[in-house]
Amino acid sequence: MGAQRTADTRPQIGEGLVRRLVDSQFPQWAGLDLKLLDPTGSDHVIYRLGEELSVRLPRHSGAIGQARKELQWLPQLAPHLPLAIPVPVGVGEPDFGYPWPWAVSRWLDGEAVTVDALGDSPGAAVELARFLAALQGVAPDGNAGEALTGRPLSDRDRATRVAIAEVDGLFDAAAMTGLWDAALSAPGWDRSPVWFHGDFHTGNLLARDGRISAVIDFGGLGVGDPACDLMIAFTLMSADSRAAFRDALGVDDATWLRGRGWALATGLNAYTHYAAVDPRVAAQTTRQITQALIG
Asked: How far apart are CA 236 and CA 106, in angstroms?
């Protein structure tokens, strides 16, 4: 399993380490209470720092670019978006044996969005469509560069077919192969590149008072084909709210099909790496895969 292969190379991140990092590099916040968030994400260990800040430390090398990426781009995007997004206030440097840059951001209040609470809400679906439309409407400037250019769905071909074979018997392998082949054969994005979130699922949404309030975790932020952000339609929404979302965003058939492919591929990746050790991920990705197959 991928999680087991990388486990012993990952740094040990505890409160003592985080305390030393914060106090030495950001003395203005020295002594503020630290509280570990549970559950933390698969990519970061997250602590609340006092009442108004959060500290995010990458767990693995695949997440080490996020702190500086968010500091550079989120302040430029935030004024154009209808939902709150993280406000980075500093990037910490490696020290005390911790090897990577880490981030301090403003705290965003809210509870993690769940299917039970908002999956059947057309209003929430339309709100998410409006967020994506606004994000896609911000013209990328010339500094976005190659580093933010999205990778095509075809880059996931080999890994996705291996994963389909691995879960044969748990899910319908023939149906998954049919969807995957169709998604790869769909016409590609033929318009100007647009911004995408890149990891747009329930775990990266917050809600307050029964409404979506914030979008977090922009480590996958990029420019190109926005089909990857349609993942939210299959991680969160019921058939009715999914239809409202698609209509509000104005998604054509080819982009929708590529979006189903992204949902299938990312769901399979997470399932094969984490489902055996994390029941929460197992339930979420099972839903994502099965809803992607439904369409």
From this structure: 26
Tokens representing residue 100 in the block = 């990577």
Say how far apart CA 225 and CA 204 lie, in whole Å: 20
Q: What are the Cα distances from residue 30, in Å, to 14, 18, 53, 72? A: 16, 11, 12, 25
In the listed set 51, 85, 106, which residue is the last one of a domain according to the structure? 106
SS3 content of the chain, % helix, strand, coil (to 5): 50, 15, 35
Q: Can you give the residue range of the structural domain that contains 197?
A: 111-294
CB contact at 8 A, 206 and 112: yes
Confidence of residue 39 (pLDDT cuts 50, 70, 90): low
Q: Tell me, what amino acid is at 119?
A: G
Looking at the structure, tell me whether residues 233 and 173 fall in a common domain: yes
Q: Output the pLDDT for position 144.
A: 80
Q: Give me the pLDDT at residue 3, please.
A: 38
Give the residue-averaged pLDDT of 58-69: 93
Q: Do 78 and 95 meet the contact criterion of CB atoms below 8 Å apart?
A: no
Could you tell me which residues come within 8 angstroms of residue 194 by beta carbon, excluding any fewer than 6 positions away?
Answer: 135, 136, 137, 140, 223, 224, 226
Which CATH number covers residue 229? 3.90.1200.10
Q: How many domains does the chain have?
A: 2
Please give the mean pLDDT across all residues of the chain.
94
Residues 6+ apart with CB under 8 A from 251: 230, 259
Does one domain contain both 214 and 240?
A: yes
Assess whether pLDDT exceeds 60 at residue 7: no
Which one-letter DSSP state was computed for residue 62?
A: G
The model's pTM: 0.93
Query: Cβ contacts of residue 38 below 8 Å, gap of 6+?
Result: none
Residue 282 structure tokens: 């197992």
The reply to whether 183 and 49 lie within a common domain is no
pLDDT at 154 over 60: yes
Put residue 45 in one of left, alpha, beta given phi > 0 → left and psi -120 to 50 → alpha. beta
